[in-house]
Amino acid sequence: MNIAFIAHDRKKEDIVNLAIAYEHVFKDKKLYSTGTTGARIMESTNLKIHRFLSGPLGGDQQIGSLIAQNEMDLVIFLRDPLMAQPHEPDITALLRLCDVHGVPVATNMATAEILIRALDRGDFAWRELVEQNKPGLA
C-alpha cells in the first residue's frame, strides 16, 4: 500500500497531527511526501517517508508520476482553499491524475479520516481487484 502526503503551508500542522493520530495505520505502509511535509511528519513520528521535492519545486508532479504509473494507492492532500497557490496548475494536474486512475484522494481532514479508517479496516482490497482486471494501455 503506497500512500502520499501533501499539505499546503497552513495545513502542515494538521497533516502532522493526522500522522501522529494514525501512525499505527501508516507504520507498515510505503509512504511518500513532498519535501517539507515529509520532514515535518518524520520529525513528529517514527514513520519513514520517501521525500520528493517541495510542491512548488515539482514534488506534486513527482507524486503525480507515481499515480500515472499506477504506483499510488491513496493520496492525502490537505489543501488550503483560502490561499492562492503559485503552482495551482500542478495541483489541478495531480487531482486529475487521481480521478483518471481511480486513486482515492482526501483534500480535507474529514475525508482523510474517513479514508484512513477504511484503510485500517482493510477496505482497500478493491484497489487490487481493479488492477487485476484493468486492461493494458497501448
TrEMBL record:
Binding of substrate, residues: H8, K12, T34, G35, T36, T37, S54, G55, H87
Entry-linked Gene3D superfamilies: Methylglyoxal synthase-like domain (3.40.50.1380)
Enzyme class: lyase
Any GO MF annotation of the entry: methylglyoxal synthase activity
Residues at the active site: D60 (proton donor/acceptor)
Start and end residues of each MGS-like domain: 1-138
Entry's Gene Ontology cellular component terms: cytosol
E.C. designation(s): 4.2.3.3
SUPFAM superfamilies: Methylglyoxal synthase-like (SSF52335)
Protein purpose: Catalyzes the formation of methylglyoxal from dihydroxyacetone phosphate.
Family listed: Belongs to the methylglyoxal synthase family.
InterPro entries: Methylgl_synth, Methylglyoxal_synth_AS, MGS-like_dom, MGS-like_dom_sf
Any single biological process term in GO: methylglyoxal biosynthetic process
Listed SMART domains: MGS
Organism, as annotated: Paenibacillus lentus
UniProt protein name: Methylglyoxal synthase
Reaction it catalyzes: dihydroxyacetone phosphate = methylglyoxal + phosphate
Record keywords: Lyase
